[in-house]
Structure formats: structure tokens, C-alpha cells
Amino acid sequence: RRSSDLAFLGPTRLCVVALPSQKSLRIEAFNLTRKEGANLVEQFGGKLYEVKDKPVLEPPPRKPLPIRNALLVVDSPKAAEAARRAGEKGPVIIIPAAMAFGTGEHATTASCLRLLADLAAKTFRDAPWDFNDLGTGSGILAIAAKKLGARKVEGCDFDPHAVRTARENVALNNAAPLPIRKTDVLKWTPNRTWHVVAANLFSEVLIQASATIADAVAEGGYLILSGILREQEAGVVAAFRKRGFSFSRAVRKGKWVALLASKTAVVKQTRQKTR
Known about the structure:
Layout: E1 14-18, E2 25-29, H1 34-44, E3 65-67, E4 71-74, H2 77-85, E5 92-94, H3 107-123, E6 130-134, H4 140-147, E7 152-157, H5 160-172, E8 180-182, E9 194-200, H6 203-208, H7 210-216, E10 217-229, H8 233-241, E11 245-253, E12 256-263
Parallel strand pairs: 4-5, 6-7, 6-9, 7-8, 9-10
Antiparallel strand pairs: 1-2, 3-4, 10-12, 11-12
């Protein structure tokens, strides 16, 4: 038979499946009447089966994720309201389950959140600070920085879906102004520096972009690195030590590592002429 004999089903109702190691094809047609099905069997042979769609189950709600005593991450406005009623007084971040990386549960994201909360509480408690989130995913780190008191915050991601999701989460958490841009870190040229930069990226990207990332951190500023597998830690550390960073903390969870580093301030010396 010719494929044109199936044209009456239209492009949105028809799926033809080639089965491995078989000469026959399977025709799947949606919203098919019994008369149309009988007609297909008459023309193409085979048997007719009715397939009923299984109900789509919603994922179970996530448990609230406390970050030190500074933040609480929940998955819905309803959960945020419940936390408030239960007496939660600190900032609550809403990150719905989505395709964009970063709900806070993964070891890399959770470690970054804790390192960020520690910096905000200890290092920048009484000082203004700015934050940039490279590879923002869902926007959770950028939103957390804003909730923790950062003065100016922005984020970027290479994935346009992540950018859209992060912008939606910024609005959901009333965190504006917080610009989220589509940016390829490997092609990026920073136009300023930030007191804290987070880069939750693959190790290969961190190493390739180490010079650019280093240029984005202010002298005396801090860098949070994650997305690093244990066997890749030494390579990432070596790449950033060459750029003037010293490492003070390493958080290892399972196969993942998150690192905190500081950029050594350059002390400018004035030469004095001797007579």
C-alpha cells in the first residue's frame, strides 16, 4: 500500500512506527473511529487494538529544603504559605519542579546555596555586595543572593529554556530587578566585576572559561564553583590557582564537589627613585 492511503488521518493523528528486525509497520492513529479502524485493517491487514491513555500523575511534592537558618526552598506558593503559617520568618524561595536544572535538591546546588548563605552571613553581613550567577539554571542561586541581601544580582545561561524558566521564577519570587540573560560563558566578556560569582557548570567549561570567570571576580572577591566531579577537582583547582585564586573550602557530596575560592587582591607598589 502507499503512504498516501493514510492521508485521510491528517498529520496530527498519525504515527507510523518501524519495529526493529521486523518487516511490518505499526500504525498508531489518535481519535480513531471504529469505522476508520476497520477500514485500515481491510486495506493494510493486521489487527486492531484500542490503547487507552494512562492518567498523568503529578510528581509528589518536595519536602521544604532549609539552607542553614537563612533560607527555605519550597516547590509551590501553597508550600510557601504553609511555611509562613508554621512560623517561618526567614526568606522563602519558590522553585517549582521544572526541566531547568536547579531545584536545590541536587548536591551541587545545595552546596552552592550553603556556601552562599555563609558568605552573606559572615563576610558581607555589614558590607554591600554584588552577585553574578553563571549557568543559572532555574535561577535559584541568583534569587537566593537577592533574598540574602545582595545589592545587585544578575544571572545567565546558555540554554534558552533555562533563561525563560529563571525569569519566571524571578517573577514568582518577587525578586526583580534581577536580569537573566542568554549567554555562552565561553564567548562572554564581562563588562565589570562582582564581589561574588557562582559558576555551577561542567568542569570542562570551568577550565576553558577560567580566564573569563576570573576576570569577572573583583579583587578580594569570592568564587563559588560547582558541577565538578571528584576526579576532575584537581584540574579545576589548578586552572583557577593560575588565575590568582586560593581555595578555602571544599564540600564533597557523593561524586560531586563544590569549592569556595577567593581572589587575591593585587597590592600596587610605587617605585621610589634613589639618588
